[in-house]
Prior knowledge:
The chain is mainly alpha-helical. It is built from three helices and no strands. It has one domain (10-78). It has helices at residues 10-18, 24-52, 61-78.
Amino acid sequence: MTTVQITLPDALAEQAERAGLLAPERVEKWLRDELKSGAWERLTTVMERMEAGPDPAEMSPEEVAFEIRKMRAEKRASHGE
């Protein structure tokens, strides 16, 4: 477990404490929600860019199989297998 220290104005810290916002469970939930939200926003951005661009050319089953073999070989090579 990691301890994180933040600096807040006194009035804000007191309000947040009274509201229960500084409880570890609340902070953890807030951080997880923010991280999920960011992932969704990035996915949405990528999907919008894909929709705006030209459709990729169709590939034959042989071309798909070749690309998969090539990717696997590159992955093995990068992992020293």
